[in-house]
Amino acid sequence: MEKNSFLHLGDHPILDFCNTVICHGEDIEDRLNGPKDAESFVNEFFSIKSKVDSKTFGSLIELRSLLRRYFYFILGLQETDPAIELNSWFAEHPLILSISNSHVPEFTAKNSPIFFANMISSLNSFLSNLDEKRLKKCANPNCSHLFYDISKNNKRQWCSMNSCGNIMKARAFYARRKGVNKK
Ligand SMILES: [Zn+2]
């Protein structure tokens, strides 16, 4: 697979996990098309080389779909709270805490590959420290990307200035010009 095929724009690996589904209007592109893509993703975002079988891949896609719904729910963009479904996903993938020789506590996933533990642990710290005002969806209505605004003034609007930022600014510019011409 090509390098750099995953977007790094969410400012958190959990959000960029959600951003592996790219919806631009009616077009939906999925960058996780099979176990090999999932292996590349966990290697790139969680620095873990792990084999992914088709069952694990299925669970991963299920988690992504639940998380996307969950974040959209937090953002007020979806009505139903998928917490119950999310909790049953967690119950199916229990974690075990262990302390290694270097006395560093570490989670492993029971009956699941190690990267599930890393992802759940990353999700846990993300949600525990979440400032909901900083969780955002790109302001381009046709774009589905989620990001965490780490800017000082919390004014970030776009997933990326190069794509949506410029599109929306151009749109606003033409809309203004149209308005001027009408006068
Ligand atoms: Zn966007």
Description:
The chain has six helices and six strands. It is 47% helix and 13% strand. The strands form three sheets. It has a two-stranded antiparallel sheet with strand order 1-2. It is elongated and about 70 Å long. The chain has helices spanning 13-18, 35-46, 54-74, 83-92, 114-128, 161-182; strands spanning 21-24, 27-30, 95-99, 105-109, 135-137, 146-148. Strand 5 (135-137) and strand 6 form a beta hairpin. It has 183 residues and is α+β, with helices and mostly antiparallel strands. The mean pLDDT is 91. Zinc ion (ZN) is lined by residues 138, 140, 143, 145, 158-159, 164.
Record the SSE blueprint.
Blueprint lengths: L12 H6 L2 E4 L2 E4 L4 H12 L7 H21 L8 H10 L2 E5 L5 E5 L4 H15 L6 E3 L8 E3 L12 H22 L1
Antiparallel strand pairs: 1-2, 3-4, 5-6
Helix pairs in contact: 3-4
Descriptive tags:
two-stranded antiparallel sheet; 13% strand; 47% helix; 6 helices; binds zinc ion; alpha+beta; 183 residues
Order of helices and strands: HEEHHHEEHEEH
Major sheet description: 2 strands, antiparallel
Q: Total number of β-strand segments?
A: 6
Strand order within the widest sheet? 1-2
Q: Uncertain segments of ≥5 residues (pLDDT<50)?
A: none
Q: Helical element count?
A: 6
Roughly how much helix do the residues carry, as a percent range? Answer: 40-55%
How confident overall, as mean pLDDT? Answer: 91
Secondary structure category: alpha+beta
Shape: elongated
Strand content: 5-15%
The whole-angstrom Rg is 19 Å
Bound molecules: zinc ion
From the N-terminal CA to the C-terminal CA, the straight-line distance is 53 Å
